[in-house]
Amino acid sequence: MEAYRDPSKPVEERVEDLLRRMTLEEKIGQMCQYSAHMGLSERLKELVRKGLVGSLLNVVGVENVNEIQRIAVEESRLGIPLLLGLDVIHGYKTIFPIPLALASSWDPEVVERATAIAAREAAAEGIRWTFAPMLDIARDPRWGRIAEGFGEDPYLASVMAWAAVKGFQGDRLSSDPEKIAACAKHYVAYGGAEGGRDYNTVDISERTLREVYMPPFKSAVAAGVATVMSAFNDLNGIPASANEFTLRKMLKGEWGFQGFVVSDWNAIGELVVHGIAADAAEAAKLAVAAGVDMDMEGDVYRRHLLELVKRGEVPEQLIDEAVRRILRVKFLLGLFENPYADPERAKRVVKRGEHFEAALEIARKCIVLAKNEGVLPLSKSLRRIAVIGPLADDRDAPLGCWRALGDPRDAVTVLEGVRKKVPHAEVLYAKGCDVRSEDRSGFEEAVEAARRAEAVVLVVGESADMSGEAASRAYLDLPGVQEELVKAVWEAVKGRGVPVVEVVMSGRPLSIKWSAEHIPAIVIAWHLGVRAGDAIADVLFGDYNPGGKLPVTWPRTVGQVPIYYNHKRTGRPPGPDRFTSKYIDEDWRPLFPFGHGLSYTRFEYSDLSVEPEEVEPGATVSVAVTVRNAGGREGDEVVQLYVRDVAASVTRPVMELKGFKRVHLKPGESKRVIFRMPTQLLAFYGRDMAPIIEAGDYEVMVGSSSEDIRLRGKFKVTRTAKLEDLRSVWFTKVEV
Ligand code: GLC
């Protein structure tokens, strides 16, 4: 048996043995990925048969997977299996909340659980690679892809990145039939697009790049992510898919990334459009030199690399390095031993009951109670409830963007959830209007339903296709005439003591200032997946006490954007004096701050301790606080630790999240939460761009949101040290 076919051999030996046997054409073939979204064409099969394809995406169904894999394994010369990928972003067939909602749980176990189930289902049907987690920091909700990531904060996103990689891959990439290779994307800073306009230019400082956009990717690499996807965007003048600095110097150099880099869809071909390559051949040369190992759907590597190598313009060892990385992932996944999917096993695994149960438990944790003036929870003894709005009985929106093979027929709508929750009540339904049209003809029916009801649940927001890729918005208003509907319903019932709740389903923060000023209760439900209706009904009627927190700042209006909590202080922070940084026509503060989320109970914080008061760089600061449930309902509180570097050699954010913990407390129960924060987390890039932990005073803030700080303390770092001289640590440990 050839060494590469022998699973008892070390992976690296198998890689080298196979590489030696490959022709240059076959090597380049491994660097080529094509989409089968239009089905398995004869042309595609022929390329696979010739060993000229390394990976396919969008192959759907066990039969198709096995058919094309059989051609690769049994008909090509070396029998190298294909790596089959799909966008399994927040579920495969059982669809979970969108990633922005998952981040709202502030619970990495939630993210790990959702991604583990997604991996189990995808792997069962032969998909062994997902193009997730998406780790783009987003400070601009006009950008539709804010829905796909974990929000605006580098620390929160880094914790969730780690959890997602572990959920998809397990502790390490292996042949585990329930795990798949993950892909940290879109590397890098894609979320910094000017104007929030998808695919647009990104021009930021290296310090912002390293301190804001890089950390989640660094965390994913430390967690062992198998692949990284290079982004579409131009980054400081060099497109991310031709950027040697980010790909070779940082990712593969500084961080020692051992997996492979796949381009985003034709991002290599688009180097010509960017104007950085005169033609596709030059694009191929730039991308492979920069460190892009696989060409997604561009057909640029297949058409040009062979000639470029033969002409000596691309060294063959660059090809070899790329192919080593790709083969390594295939061997580690066990694809050579188990390339096929088992249809019987797939039937047992996909969409099984426990996955739907998990979808409900997860969705509940992602709901954010933004406002509640004595309205929620609703009484179950209500006799007549009106459920109104274009998303009240919509089964598609809850699946959100990037729903893989999710089926809207599996989704539970809010109307269905409410009807199940209060079967004895008369539940009136009125759509009122469409999501995006100007048609107001449904208002009258909606107002009439509200007039007859003892309580009103409004369900408004965005359809699934209004966020995600190529879905940037210039406005953040409720689309169409939805706000007019809300106003009409409110006018009909205000002053009558009728509880009115507004449930907002969206893939981004929306400017709902009027609602926040008038509607007594607001529930942020994002796009919560197949069990959305049940989870929302559980919260509305108190069977679940919401504990979610915002992973993004929620603006009053689009004019404030970009707006984020960890901003710089400036020399004239906003204040009463006219000549300070604010607007003359709008409050400068957000509608709801980063980390915001209410509960049906209340939590008290006490006994803050910060030890030691003076700490050496590389040591750990322990911040302890007691949190008590002072109300009558059990519930979750996300205890948040923020730090501020009071004075530094470069300007620093007014605060930065450096630890958090979601704790469950029964009425009257107290818990001592201890954050063991390594001082390495205080590092920043100094004036010479070297990462340092700087001597000086630091303020500690502990609270329920970035603006609801309950207790403050301080400590001092005794001297300045270079981060590279200290051991790497990623997160604050939290003991409860
Ligand atoms: C898309 C997206 C990327 C996705 C890829 C494959 O253009 O940018 O996130 O993974 O193509 O579908």
Overall body shape:
globular
Percent helix, as a range, is: 25-40%
**What is the gyration radius calculated from CA atoms?**
26 Å
Residue runs with pLDDT of under 50 for 5 or more positions:
none
Biggest sheet features: 6 strands, mixed
- From the N-terminal CA to the C-terminal CA, the straight-line distance is 54 Å
Number of helices: 21
Known CATH architecture of the domain at 348-558 = 3-Layer(aba) Sandwich
In short:
With 736 residues, the protein is α/β, with parallel strands linked by helices.
Question: What topology does this entry show?
Answer:
Blueprint: H1 11-21, H2 24-30, E1 32-35, H3 42-49, E2 55-57, H4 62-75, E3 83-86, H5 99-104, H6 108-124, E4 129-130, H7 154-169, E5 183-187, H8 206-213, H9 215-222, E6 227-230, E7 234-235, E8 238-239, H10 244-254, E9 260-263, H11 270-274, H12 280-290, E10 295-296, H13 300-310, H14 316-332, H15 343-349, H16 353-366, E11 368-372, E12 384-388, H17 414-421, E13 426-430, H18 443-452, E14 455-461, H19 482-493, E15 500-505, H20 513-518, E16 521-524, H21 532-540, E17 603-611, E18 614-615, E19 620-629, E20 635-645, E21 656-665, E22 670-678, E23 684-685, E24 691-693, E25 696-703, E26 709-717, E27 721-722, E28 733-735
This protein binds alpha-D-glucopyranose (GLC).
Description of the structure:
With 736 residues, the chain is α/β, with parallel strands linked by helices. Among the domains are: 348-558, Rossmann fold (3-Layer(aba) Sandwich), CATH 3.40.50; 603-728, Immunoglobulins (Immunoglobulin-like), CATH 2.60.40. 29% of the residues lie in helices and 19% in strands. The chain contains 21 helices and 28 strands. The strands form 7 sheets. Strands 11-16-15-14-12-13 form a 6-stranded mixed beta sheet, sandwiched between helices. Strands 4-3-2-1-10 form a 5-stranded parallel beta sheet. A 5-stranded mixed beta sheet has the order 18-26-25-20-21. Helix 1 (11-21) crosses helix 14 (316-332), helix 2 packs antiparallel against helix 13 and helix 16 packs across helix 21 (532-540). The model has no long low-confidence stretch (mean pLDDT 98). Residues 57, 87, 131, 185, 264-265, 469 line the site of alpha-D-glucopyranose.
